[in-house]
Amino acid sequence: MSDRDRLRWWTLIPFVALIATVIAFGQAFPPGEWYAGLKKPSIAPPNWIFGVVWTPLYLMISLAGWLLWERAHRSPAMGLWVAQLALNAGWSWIFFGLHQMGAALLEIILLWLVIGATILAAWRVSRAAAFLLLPYWLWVAFASTLNFVFWQLNR
Description:
Layout (H helix, E strand, L loop, with lengths): L2 H8 L2 H15 L4 H5 L11 H25 L3 H22 L3 H25 L1 H27 L2
């Protein structure tokens, strides 16, 4: 591995750190007693599934951001990647922190749209980055449906 390649891999560290910050922010708003008391829809997976799903998704989001940065760090795709990350961080605060399921639904729909826009913009910069974001986009579609059903059941 050349010095240039080694240096390039070092640039991945801030992306992993940024994702770790988003995870830590989300964990500041655990489901808790409020969530435990909600009516659960039949499509709700067991709580342990979320960590199993989000761990690889967050790794893929990190890699996608890093690939976009490496290829075109001042591109619309990079700006959209940052925007989706901010929206991702905000959902836990709105849903679990503020207990605002309707507002969280609007926010997660916006997140889903921004992830979709990120994928489209990334396609022009790095197809690998676009592909890495597809599972995330699909999971957020499911999470949006889940948020909607929770909101309907617990008004």
